[in-house]
Write a structure and sequence with these properties.
Helix content: 40-55%
Strand content: 15-25%
Number of helices: 13
Shape: globular
Oligomer: single chain
CATH superfamily of the largest domain: Type I PLP-dependent aspartate aminotransferase-like (Major domain)
Keywords: Pyridoxal phosphate, Transferase
CATH topology of the largest domain: Aspartate Aminotransferase, domain 2
Structural class: alpha/beta
Cofactor: pyridoxal 5'-phosphate
Family: Belongs to the class-III pyridoxal-phosphate-dependent aminotransferase family.
GO molecular function, one term: transaminase activity
CATH architecture of the largest domain: 3-Layer(aba) Sandwich
Bound molecules: pyridoxal-5'-phosphate
InterPro entries: Aminotrans_3, PyrdxlP-dep_Trfase, PyrdxlP-dep_Trfase_major, PyrdxlP-dep_Trfase_small
Number of domains: 2
């Protein structure tokens, strides 16, 4: 309560702005995740790896736009690409362009896809991948996992707002995710659903991102892939969040060979983006208009030049395979340091590389009850120390965050745990 009172006292603009906003926006904004009680902070601008709120406070940006902000704010390479697109090309030409094909080729090469198609968000990428799987198999049902988040209309438990799942009846949810027991349950569910004769796809994340940065084991993911194959279902790996974790995506690192992969987030260079692709046999047979009975896939902004050029510049010039490998290590080291200072407390840091979940749990194990009160206290107090993280405890690191800021955060966490020793 004391931390919340201080928050209210030092953020009068954000408070007033929220009161204004709810007169036209239910909840005060259009992203449920961003609603934080008693009111969300209203940011004013960002530069490199920092953001400033409307009340004048400066923060190290650990929200990283939920992983879409990999490059930071106004990265010089992205800025150059954006200005050149605006000045010399135009935003949307109502036609195919070389920029579209150029980016498609880079995405295919980088993420080992035989074919790819563009969309505007990760949600759309998954919608289209499911449509492709359904068209290809002529079936409808999709096996997914509890705690999964595949986009705005595809959340399956685990979230804090009510699940908002499209076509609820078409999804069969495996209750566990990630380990050996989950693999056994998944095998059973996949076999059983296939037996009923209507299984189109199995959709899974290599690490549950919104579910708390919980990696699936290689054995689990391979077992799910194998069961999907055996059942004749399309195996779709959602790499919207995880493609940044390894040079060719997390799936390649784990030795998986998904039929389809979905992409998004930072790959738009900071603009809305989604893409889906994979095996030629599926993609061509479903989408090539020269193939009889092919499926339409439209979208006014699918190949807009701004995203095609900004995304390409980022992946081609900034987040190269070498940089990706180094960045993975920076993230892993950071998480290790955080877990070092949290040892013996209720706090745990999970994840892989630059994607980190923080968890306050009753007895310090992930299986025990979540302590939302401690997580909230942490959020308020980290703001006071100048760190912008998501209220639910997700950190998506930016590429160029100075090492001093990472160290300063480890220090702030350590001081937080000492300060509240009695309840940690
Ligand atoms: N899939 C995963 C794994 C995600 O984490 C997200 C977004 O957080 C999405 C899909 C949806 O992407 P978007 O928000 O661009 O629709």
């Amino acid at each position: 309560a004391a931390a919340q009172s201080r928050y209210v006292a030092i953020n009068p603009f954000s408070k007033k702005q929220h009161e204004r906003a709810i007169e036209s926006l239910p909840g005060g904004n259009t992203r449920t995740l961003l609603h934080t009680s008693p009111f969300p902070l209203c940011m004013k601008h960002g530069k490199a790896t920092f953001v400033w709120d409307e009340d004048g406070h400066k923060y190290t940006d650990f929200v990283g736009e939920l992983s879409a902000g990999l490059y930071g704010h106004s990265h010089p390479v992205i800025r150059t690409a954006v200005l050149a697109t605006f000045d010399e090309i135009g935003l949307s030409l109502g036609s195919t362009t070389t920029y579209e094909a150029r980016y498609a080729s880079l995405l295919c090469q980088r993420f080992k896809l035989e074919r790819v198609r563009m969309a505007n968000t990760g949600t759309e990428a998954n919608l289209h991948a499911l449509a492709a799987a359904r068209h290809y198999t002529g079936k409808r049902k999709v096996v997914v996992f509890n705690g999964a988040y595949h986009g705005a209309c595809f959340s399956f438990g685990g979230g804090e707002a009510a699940p908002n799942t499209a076509d609820k009846g078409d999804f069969v949810v495996v209750q566990r995710y990630g380990d050996e027991e989950a693999a056994a349950e998944a095998r059973g569910v996949i076999e059983e659903t296939a037996k009923e004769g209507d299984l189109a796809a199995v959709l899974v994340e290599g690490m549950q991102g919104a579910g708390g940065c919980l990696p699936g084991s290689t054995e689990f993911l391979s077992a799910v892939q194998e069961a999907a194959r055996k059942a004749g279902a399309v195996f779709i790996l959602d790499e919207v969040m995880t493609s940044r974790l390894a040079p060719n995506g997390l799936g390649q690192e784990l030795g998986l060979s998904p039929d389809l992969v979905t992409l998004g987030k930072y790959l738009g260079g900071g603009f809305g983006f989604g893409a889906f692709g994979g095996r030629k046999e599926i993609m061509d047979s479903v989408y090539d208009p020269r193939v009889k009975g092919s499926l339409a896939h439209s979208g006014t902004f699918n190949n807009n030049t701004m995203t095609m050029c900004a995304g390409y510049a980022g992946l081609n010039q900034v987040f190269t395979e070498e940089v990706c490998v180094q960045f993975r290590k920076v993230g892993d080291d950071f998480r290790e340091k955080l877990n070092g200072v949290a040892k013996g407390t209720r706090l745990r840091f999970t994840g892989k590389g630059s994607l980190i979940g923080l968890h306050f749990r009753e007895d310090g194990t992930l299986e025990s009850q979540e302590r939302v009160d401690l997580r909230d206290l942490f959020w308020f107090e980290m703001l006071e120390d100048g760190f912008w993280i998501t209220r639910r405890g997700f950190i998506a690191m930016m590429l160029d965050t100075p090492k001093e800021e990472l160290d300063r955060f480890v220090d702030a966490v350590s001081r937080f745990l000492e300060r509240h020793d009695g309840i940690m």
